[in-house]
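sry for the spam today, last one i promise. struct tokens for design, 255 residues
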């Protein structure tokens, strides 16, 4: 760290967001100085993108059910970030910032158009809320959060996790996303019917990352449902911690 400073992460909380503590703890465990702030307080202060860039190297939008998913999952949260705060997260990334959106946070990033206007998210293909563990596989080298990470077991818990691409130009959009390395995380199976089995996306810079699984819920090995089969690993880190450690290494470079 330069001058002994830790990189700082702003973890958003608010009405219906319920994973902010776990997310902040995961960042802290990786070496960050983590701060949780309520979205309404930021709006009241008119906390600008300039202030965000100056104070925090990383922004986290945690999971939950923000604003009860009224109007669609993550949509009200997205509207508050765009119109209440005026934040352009692509511009924040261009300045060196890192962004992660987990589950509901990922849904909000999609609603904001961070990954393009042809990407959307809707109800799982089987029409049910899914609460289970899945295996996911990183793809490519673009995403700063996933570099050097192999296959992972992570929990999912969502009812609207099916990524869809605009059907009238699907081939063109998929080719562009592939070219820019955006399709960075895939399910090994098919838990929700997502296009291309997509579990996560990054923007073309690789600095904005959104995913439906919850890496913050697996930063300790004992969180895994089968951890007792390998009791000798009881004090080992969970596989999700590696994402936050990658962010720490990347964020240190812009301090």
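last one done:
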């Amino acid at each position: 760290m330069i001058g002994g400073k830790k990189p700082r992460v702003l973890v958003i909380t608010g009405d219906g967001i319920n994973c902010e503590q776990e997310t902040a703890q995961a960042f802290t465990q990786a070496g960050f100085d983590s701060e949780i702030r309520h979205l309404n307080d930021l709006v009241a202060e008119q906390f600008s993108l300039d202030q965000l860039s100056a104070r925090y190297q990383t922004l986290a939008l945690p999971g939950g059910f923000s604003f009860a998913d009224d109007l669609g999952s993550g949509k009200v949260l997205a509207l508050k970030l765009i119109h209440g705060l005026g934040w352009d997260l692509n511009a924040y990334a261009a300045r060196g910032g890192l962004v992660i959106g987990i589950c509901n946070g990922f849904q909000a990033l999609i609603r904001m158009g961070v990954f393009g206007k042809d990407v959307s998210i809707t109800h799982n293909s089987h029409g049910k809320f899914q609460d289970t563990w899945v295996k996911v596989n990183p793809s490519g080298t673009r995403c700063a959060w996933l570099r050097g990470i192999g296959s992972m077991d992570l929990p999912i818990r969502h009812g609207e996790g099916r990524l869809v691409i605009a059907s009238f130009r699907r081939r063109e959009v998929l080719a562009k996303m592939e070219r820019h390395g955006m399709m960075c995380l895939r399910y090994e199976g098919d838990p929700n019917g997502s296009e291309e089995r997509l579990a996560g996306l990054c923007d073309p810079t690789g600095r904005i990352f959104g995913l439906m699984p919850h890496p913050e819920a697996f930063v300790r090995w004992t969180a895994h449902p089968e951890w007792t089969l390998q009791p000798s690993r009881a004090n080992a880190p969970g596989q999700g911690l590696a994402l936050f450690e990658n962010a720490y290494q990347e964020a240190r470079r812009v301090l």
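Residues 211 and 247 are 15 Å apart (CA to CA). ok im logging off now
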